[in-house]
Design brief:
homotetramer, about 260 residues, alpha/beta, 8 strands
């Protein structure tokens, strides 16, 4: 197993930044070399997190795939209003191109998944839908589907997590959010209208998670739109116990 | 010489972040242990940069001080509008407290300097003036004193570097900037009015630097306000050749 | 929680090297500042490992102590024959001095423990006994107490793990090992003869571990010598499941 | 420019280790994508050093090549006597295979160079000659060609740098060294006898360097053997001033 910490200049962010990659490429285990380019999982951290703060070390060996871990600050993996706040572009374009070119990772959606937890669950669904020809499979755990709350916010308002300016910076003008491409539901509708293939989706949330109703709402939306998807609830709260269990299930579903 | 890469949860940024520190604390050189706590230089990178992208490795041994290198993204070292965009607090309070407590570095302004280049030159002057009881000496190289330009910006405008939203996020409402504490000149006026001690200041800029007029304007302002300061121009542009020369001069002035 | 990756020049190794430190020193949890200097656990990796390859992230917050993680290659934490192969000195002197001076960690044996697994279990016991005034408590898990096997080796021999030259380099001349200070039993006898206080000892090994008999032999030796110690066997093999369970028990015993 | 810090399990060393890589692969400069796989320079540090302690940051952009920086401790880049002390194999086989497979770097000797300073100059020449089908070009600066001194050492002897056990561990039995493959001159003779192509060689040493006579002796040996090579002396001692000048010349000679 090789673990890479990478510093580079990001065009999307207009500054030097870093990300991390894990590849089962070293000779430790005497694994047979994989046939063809290696499959890739983009793994997205939650609010307050960064690359590498949860790494399922055992899985890449088991299923023979690479993990790419961006650091996306508290951006919700969206292109914010400010120059250099382009985290959707960072993950969905720049890093995809970087790791495919630099590490020769698989270049087709069948072998490219994206998953995350909490804010990263939102990011996985949104980024996957924004680039359906890049990501074939989406795993969204305990996802912070907060876009409808944000859409209701008025200037000067906010909540206990962050102020109005933060939400506006990340999601764009709240009043425009429902119809905006930052709303994953808008992306679903557009993909359907365009006849585009929608990536396969696996959602999971703990029944005691404070975000459970947001996840149920997204599940109902997908059902109403006729979008096939796996939806799972299980005992659990918004913590690593749940994510440790479900990242295993998601990876098996993606690459098993 | 010991070099530290540090990851921690920042209250100011509301997320995990990192910074770097260099301390001449190892036994390589057979240096005598310094008397008392070690002097500290906070060294600020420019726009597009990050911690560690210019490190004057020879100086800490020569003058026996530690270097603390924050990563402040493209924030201009200001507290922006959004929650978690508190880079002034990060550098001027949180990191100061962190390194003093964790590394036992000197706790008085006489032994605490702040310096930077370009955006980091703005940051050094602004942060130093915002915390005059923390930083006794300020070194500002090729500083991006762009606050008067920003104050003129109207919604929808921006420039070739960044858009209006970026400047508004960093500096606050442009229309309010002249009087705001994000304008270092405002801080000077307030410190004078309050009878507070203003940190010692060393400014330098290359005569061919595109920011030379901004630096001359700040120099004239300080003269007009009767604020003692060193001001130096020399041949040079906005590049590492100039900064490599002047960081030596600034450190000698600070700690020599 | 702050995590430090540190590069420095090691006098003991005569070259630049690195180690890692975890300190519960950031403001995330709103913990009360500890009274006095922070307690410290030196945590030693096993054969094939390095600093940071097993980190009990939850424990420092729970019991308020720092973890220092050396990288000691495959040295058995001994001073080998070659210049620069001084890993006992690295851990027991150089790093102790470094972290106490640089991070202000506790300077007394009551608040300084050393623990490890496999080769690191050997290292914890040996280093603790070599510096009984530095380390007050020793935790040795699944320890590679292989010194009696090594003492039997003849030139040209070795085993499936490594060749004779490797063992000779690490342990010194095998023929002299039984009486040498690289044998932890020799250290016990010398400490007793000198009337020195022996650190408190906690040993644990899985009943299905291939090293169980080596651990039982050390347990019998300590009993025969009248050295008080905790000795625990439990279900388990030579793996992270066992160590994850017992590092919790050892830290509670040390600092609980 | 992207900078990679890589941790992995090394079969050659039988333990986890790290190395560093710099690739001009990011979109900062708007460089045209290179045609075909990227050229590679293996850059070897000196005694007391490690990966990354001297990095010619400007050169990869200028000539479009990757730099691979091993950490080889104080090994002289040789396969020592002990299991796991296989630094020749690490650099000349394991890392070559790793970076070619993982980063898709150039796989032919024409596009693969090896260079180093001091101990790394010895390593560059020796490793290049040990793998002449891998490395097409060798750059050796201020090289520690000390093999004739080592060959004279008797048990118990050593010098001010290290003891006899250290030299024996690195170079093998001194009494056998002259004829051994650890002597680069032996490799030259064998390559000639086998009719193998000898890599192109560029040697440089400062006239005031304490190793100047060792470098002149190697130069005379190559002349006597009729091995074409560039040999340069210039004003300078054993320091970064000389190496900063000559790494530029060597890279231009290799890839210009």
């Amino acid at each position: 197993m090789a673990y890479f910490r990478i510093e580079y200049y990001s065009k999307a962010l207009r500054r030097e930044t870093s990300f991390e990659v894990m590849i089962p490429c070293d000779p430790r285990e005497g694994m047979p070399a994989p046939e063809g380019p290696m499959r890739t999982l983009f793994l997205l951290h939650g609010y307050t997190g960064k690359a590498g703060n949860y790494v399922p070390f055992d899985l890449p060996y088991k299923y023979n795939f690479a993990i790419v871990m961006p650091s996306a600050e508290n951006s919700f993996y969206l292109n914010g209003l400010s120059t250099g706040h382009a985290f959707q572009t960072l993950v969905g374009e720049e890093l995809v191109e970087f790791v495919r070119k630099t590490f020769g990772l698989a270049g087709d959606p069948t072998n490219t998944g994206i998953a995350g937890l909490s804010m990263g669950g939102f990011g996985a669904l949104h980024t996957g839908l924004a680039y359906p020809r890049t990501f074939g499979k989406i795993g969204a755990m305990s996802s912070a589907f907060i876009h409808h709350e944000v859409a209701q916010m008025k200037p000067g308002q906010g909540n206990e997590v962050a102020n109005y300016d933060y939400y506006r910076e990340c999601f764009g003008e709240p009043a425009l959010l429902e119809e905006s491409d930052n709303n994953p539901e808008t992306l679903i509708r557009k993909l359907k209208a365009a006849g585009e293939k929608i990536p396969e989706i696996y959602m999971a949330c703990g029944t005691e998670d404070f975000l459970i109703e947001n996840n149920r709402a997204m599940h109902r939306f997908l059902e109403a739109e006729g979008v096939p998807h796996e939806y799972h609830e299980g005992p659990g709260i918004h913590d690593m116990v749940f994510w440790t269990e479900y990242i295993q299930k998601i990876v098996r579903w993606m690459f098993g």
